Amino acid sequence: MIAEFLITLTVLVAILFLGLEWKKSQKTKTIPGPPFFRGVWELIQSVKQEAIHLCASKWADRYGDLVFVNALVRKVVFVNNAELCRKLFNDPSTRELSNDRPPSYTGRVLFYNYKDMLFGRYNKELLKRRKIFHHVLKFYGQGVNNFEKLMTSTSKELCHRLTRYEGDVSLFVELTRYIRWVVGLLLKGDETCEEDLDAMIGFIEKANVIATFETEIFLETFPFVPYIPGLWHRKAIQEVQAARGKLEERIFMAVRDKFRAGETTSIVADLLEQQAELQKSGNFQDMTDDDILGMVQDIAAAAYITTAGTLTSLFLQFLVDQKLQDRVYAEICEVIGDESPSFEHKRHMPYTEATILETLRYSSIVPLLLPHYANGDIHFEGHFIPKGTFLILNSWCVHHREDLWEDPWAFKPERFLDSDGQVLETDHPTRQNLLAFGAGKRLCPGENFARVRVFFIVVTLLQKFRFLPPEDVPLPSANPADWKPGVVISPEDYKCRLEPRGEPAT
Which PANTHER family match (predicted)? Predict the structure, then answer.
């Protein structure tokens, strides 16, 4: 009875709030967008189908580069133009107001009261965390050598496992399994085992249930919901908290219990080393255990999801377009030959790099990037954006606009090459239209790290195998417009045939 009463009360409060918001929206909205009730209805329908990015792109076609939606208890502005994205999030007049994250149940409860980089609020503590993260990656000196060794050894293990298949290979399964193994080794080091990986994936899967747009809005608006018996939210939150505890035990506690100063054999060990150095100088605030745990969860989730999705998308392109695969392989033969791939090789392989960039654009596996949040009133391009508005970078729309990309629904790595066949500079207008890793002060700090991982895996596998479609099973569509909608999108599971290089086809 109590639960029913509270739910009824919640509905009545929501209806009252809805009416007040409608009246208020008539006075404050200056950015074009759908009428209030129509916008709410269309948003609710798209949330049910996990297709907000498709709905937002239709609004972009109808209303333009900036679209305002009064989403019941939240105001949302979709930014559908790359130039406006960069200006809103980078310009000195707006960047201090536009690079926050919205208050979220995930950030507050699951990420140790925002002590991470994905959900952390925009403040000095976040900037310190990002600086520490860049140091931990160590993409210089001995850190480069260690990463090359890790990628070389693990890629060879993957190749060896693939050779044991008889018949079609479950490439989707093998690639996702491989990525989780690499992420586990990076986080914990050589002692990583299957139980550690299960804990990592268990947390990611459970957290994804809570971290959806509609669930976040619901939990932030009605924070008492997790305490109401009988609602699914309570069970889901209990499960994700248990999964977080398991991840903490398997990855963080296990490394800390054996940690010795100077033995930085993993990212967690490196973070503990920095924590110890700060504490020696009397600084106990910049790197607490919660800070480390938050970054561990960031790396586990972001590195696994984005790399796995990008790779499965790219290899599907190789299967449906053998000429694309042949051209990348030709560059591998010319630059690498039979050697193990290295950072130095990457600099001399423009077509392979352009292929990776085109995969990021074409697939857009995260179609709506994590929302920014206006922590103050913003005056932008003649429009007024009130404090508390969600600012959503619509990368799906930006990456498939016909006025920005010639033939946007065709996979063309050449669009990222100049007339001499070299990769376009990062400040080139075409590169500026690529927003796969965000923009502004929330630009993903692991962008180069992610692209390098993909490079090593692609060249190692193509160096050893030709990838061919299965004989009796059709491949799923390689067009991302046909993929199942979601917060993260990827092609359906698929299989392929492998032909070792140097051996004739049978």
Answer: STEROID 17-ALPHA-HYDROXYLASE/17,20 LYASE, STEROID 17-ALPHA-HYDROXYLASE_17,20 LYASE
CA distance 173 to 196: 18
309's tokens:
């999705």
pLDDT confidence of 26, banded at 50, 70, 90?
A: very low
Specify the long-range contacts of residues 376-381, CB closer than 8 Å, at least 24 apart: 376/97, 377/97, 378/88, 378/94, 378/97, 378/98, 380/87, 380/88, 380/94, 381/66, 381/84, 381/87
The whole-angstrom separation of Cα 168 and Cα 485 is 27
Say how far apart CA 111 and CA 132 lie, in whole Å: 17
Nearest to 384 by CA among 15, 94, 58: 94
Residues linked to residue 384 through DSSP beta bridges, in sequence order? 379
Tell which residue, 58, 116, 490, 91, has the closest CA to residue 309: 490
Which residue has 């698929």 as its token pair?
A: 494
Question: Residue 307 corresponds to which tokens in the numbers above?
Answer: 């790399």
Q: What is the dihedral of CA 38, 41, 46, 47, to 10 degrees?
A: 140
- The bridge status of strand 378-380 relative to strand 383-385 is antiparallel
Q: Contact 499/465 with Cβ under 8 angstroms? A: yes
On the 0-12 / 13-18 / 19+ scale of CB atoms within 10 A, 176 is buried
* Interatomic CA distance for residues 357 and 362, integer angstroms: 9
Q: At what angle do helices 194-210 and 289-320 cross, to 10 degrees?
A: 90
Residue 199 — pLDDT band, cuts 50, 70, 90? very high
> Closest Cα to residue 496, out of 325, 306, 303, 305?
325
Q: Give the mean pLDDT of 62-83.
A: 92
Tell whether the model's pLDDT for residue 3 goes beyond 60: no
Tens of pLDDT, residue by residue over 316-373, are 999 999 999 999 999 999 999 989 898 889 999 999 999 999 999 999 999 999 999 9
By the 10 Å C-beta count (0-12 exposed, 13-18 middle, 19+ buried), 9 is classed as exposed
- HEC readout, 4-19: HHHHHHHHHHHHHHHH
Kindly calculate the radius of gyration of the chain based on its CA atoms and give it in whole angstroms: 24
User: Is 222 in a helix, a strand, or coil?
Assistant: coil
Per-residue tokens: 6: 């509270």
Strand 465-468 versus strand 390-393 pairing type: unpaired
Quote the Cα angle for 211-125-296, to 5°.
Answer: 50
Model confidence, pTM: 0.89
What pLDDT is attached to residue 506?
43
Q: Which residue would you say has higher pLDDT here, 356 or 157?
A: 356
